[in-house]
Design a protein that fits this description.
By secondary structure, the protein is α+β, with helices and mostly antiparallel strands. It contains 4 helices and 7 strands. It has one domain: START domain (Alpha-D-Glucose-1,6-Bisphosphate, Chain A, domain 4, 2-Layer Sandwich), CATH 3.30.530.20. It holds the Pfam family AHSA1.
């Protein structure tokens, strides 16, 4: 069983790549609550009624490595809701001369999983396109905050 892995190389310094990786709202989703850049921090990801998960940042070594542990997960399109629970998401940041390689691995996301095709396609987009765009242009393509949530937040703050 092979874990899902993808990689790309950019002409940016490893510290720039690290800042982008830890700016999860900038490349994965604006629907993130909690800290994404500090070890021990927990954040919640939410995408409509399709996917939600709780993730802990387990390593954040500037310019080198970021790892997450998935504590809880829900997909509305699979039977086994434990497929992501206990898996590790890993970003290795490797200096290669004037370039930096980003190697993404979702340890435990394997082809035998019901969600593998959907999840690997989604990670492919968010890592290889959105994260790369955030690193190279300063603007990623994250899921946008649900407009209903924005309106509810504004109403609760009296905006």
């Amino acid at each position: 069983m092979t874990d899902y892995t993808t990689k790309f190389t950019v002409e940016k310094h490893p510290s720039d790549v690290f800042r982008a990786v830890t700016n999860v709202r900038g490349w994965w989703s604006e629907e993130i609550d909690g800290p994404t850049d500090q070890v021990g921090g927990r954040f919640e990801y939410h995408y409509q009624d399709v996917h939600r998960c709780e993730i802990e940042v387990t390593a954040a070594v500037p310019g080198r490595l970021v790892t997450w542990l998935v504590h809880d997960n829900y997909f509305d399109f699979i039977t086994d809701q434990t497929e992501w629970t206990g898996t590790t998401v890993r970003f290795d940041i490797l200096a290669k001369g004037d370039q930096t390689e980003v190697r993404f691995t979702h340890q435990g996301l394997v082809p035998a999983y019901e969600c593998f095709d959907v999840c690997s396609n989604a990670w492919g987009f968010f890592v290889n396109t959105s994260l790369r765009d955030l690193i190279t242009t300063g603007e990623g393509q994250p899921n946008k905050r649900d407009q209903q949530n924005v309106l509810a937040e504004q109403a609760s703050f009296g905006a």
